[in-house]
Amino acid sequence: DERYADLVGKNVILPIVGRKIPILADSYADPEQGSGAVKITPAHDFNDFEVGRRCNLNSINILDKTACIELNEDDFSDMESRDSWQGLERFEARKRVIDEITELGLLDKIEDNTHMVPFGDRSDVVIEPWLTDQWYVDAAILAKPAIEAVKSGQTKFVPANWEKTYFDWMENIQPWCISRQLWWGHQIPAWYGPDGEVFVAESEQDAYVAAKTHYGHDTELTRDEDVLDTWFSSALWPLSTLGWPDDTPELHKHYKTDVLVTGFDIIFFWVARMMMMGLHFKQEVPFHTVYIHALVRDEKGAKMSKSKGNVIDPLELADKYSADALRFTLSAMAAMGRDIKLSESRVEGYRNFATKLRNATRFCEINECFTAGAFNPADATLPLTQWLVGETYRATEAISASLEAYRFNDASTSVYQFIWDGFCDWFIELAKPILQGDDEAAKIETQAAAQWGLQNALKLLHPFMPYVTEELWQEIKPADTGAKFLMLENWPQIPENLMNKDADAEINWVVKAITGIRSVRSEMNVPASSKIPLIVSGSNKLTQQRIVRHNDVLKRLARLDTITVQNDFPEGSIQSIVEEAVFAIHLNEVIDVTAETDRLKKEITKVEKEISKISGKLSNQGFLEKAPDAVIQENKSRLQDEQSKLEKLETALGRLS
Q1: DSSP symbols for 583-603
Q2: pTM of structure
Q3: Which residues is 564 bridged to in the sheet?
Q4: What whole-number distance in Å separates Cα of residue 342 and Cα of residue 309?
Q5: Highest mean pLDDT: which of 1-5, 349-353, 607-611?
């Protein structure tokens, strides 16, 4: 700063203390801020400490561990009032500084200034930097092979974008302070002689040998009372859990380990430290893949915090809904790069999913499926059992591919759809007429296929819901395979050549037809108890044959009174398309079309107002700047829900029109 160039190298007298302090030039001082000159305290400020290091300043402590004034004789021997300051609480001392500066006539003016001050998250007390003697590791040396290991692909991050975070930290790493003043932990391996000489050794015995060599005789040593940083101890986890430093069989067999699953917030604290330790002590990375999962937030998207009172206790959820339901919820929501908004209703929903599986097992047991003998997919003759083979194959392929790519949410969705929709809803419902019919051969094949399908469903679900699947497996496990535990079973292996396209097309047509009719019923508020007539137009010969073959199933599952194939529709018919055919449902006899139209219009108006209200908030720059991220995300989510609702209402109104 040119204004002060002639002062650099001179001294000023520090009032009250009376000590000379040097005037220095350093890039840290901002000429545009205040006077451009600032008094620094290297022992009590992080930035000032760095300036002091650059300029070779002494770092003088003036606080004790309780943040009260402690002025030592060496640095404050010329201070006449030193004793009167001793033990003064820090905030009281600051007030006294102002009072004494004022009395000396040296106070020019006082200005308000917003100061960024750190507070302890537990104590809510201002944190003061305090100079202490600590132990350090030269982390830059340890970081080099750990950086190279990721660059060369020995260890990869999933998602890969987290490699940048890893490199940013590792390439700018500072000396690692590894000592902590805590009660518990691995004690620092350092011993002190009577004159303060330090002996660092792997064991106390080694330290005493080193001391004897140094002093020439046996000497009493005192061990450092500090303990190692938690992350130092945690960094040894892949090694110490396998018996290291002993050369154990477990260490040979299991190191390096496989996949590390962790959160992004401890990539530097834990992942990087394990990499450094593993490469230093074993010359090999501790794991080949690091899967970075999302943070679990509350249902509004806010980070969980004890102080906010929004922490969801996983043990309480497990007690209430089962550990399986909670486990499946987390896997189903674990999309890469997206935090999890955990709500109790989702966990409850997956508890119901487990109940659905139990009910399906009971159904198979009641219908004697577990005594029907083995099912050979290659020998399946019925379209329904052939379709089940195809569904099981497709589910296995989708789940396997997702798991291998660490897309746990996609894998969860696939297994959920296969079990809830494919097996429990459609296969079981379509199997009921066969199981209750007179065709004994078809019945036996369907029973065996149900047993086979359920066994594969349990295998596919086991990684996500290990407890309920293992329990059910013990009830239904095949007696001739010697399979004691589901966890030891092989993953399903189904040859692709067993797929039957005709059977898939046949059953999928039935599913689409019933789903389409059910959707119209739901949109039009048709009472569940009402049976309605169905008219089919524009159908080809294959569709007409399917209608005949599945007439009873269509009527039962879609709640139909009659099914008629003709070319014209009566007035008031709601139309939907199923492949090439037009399905028309005559609703005049079951609902008041005019009243339903009015209801839909009112609902649309209500939803449009809500969309306008939320959109107004999200387009308001003031709201976006002031509102917490969780509130903004909640409004965006609500807007999506309302827009989806509007789309469905408009579709329903369009059908009535």
Answers
A1: EEEE-TTTS-HHHHHHHHHHH
A2: 0.73
A3: 535
A4: 15
A5: 349-353
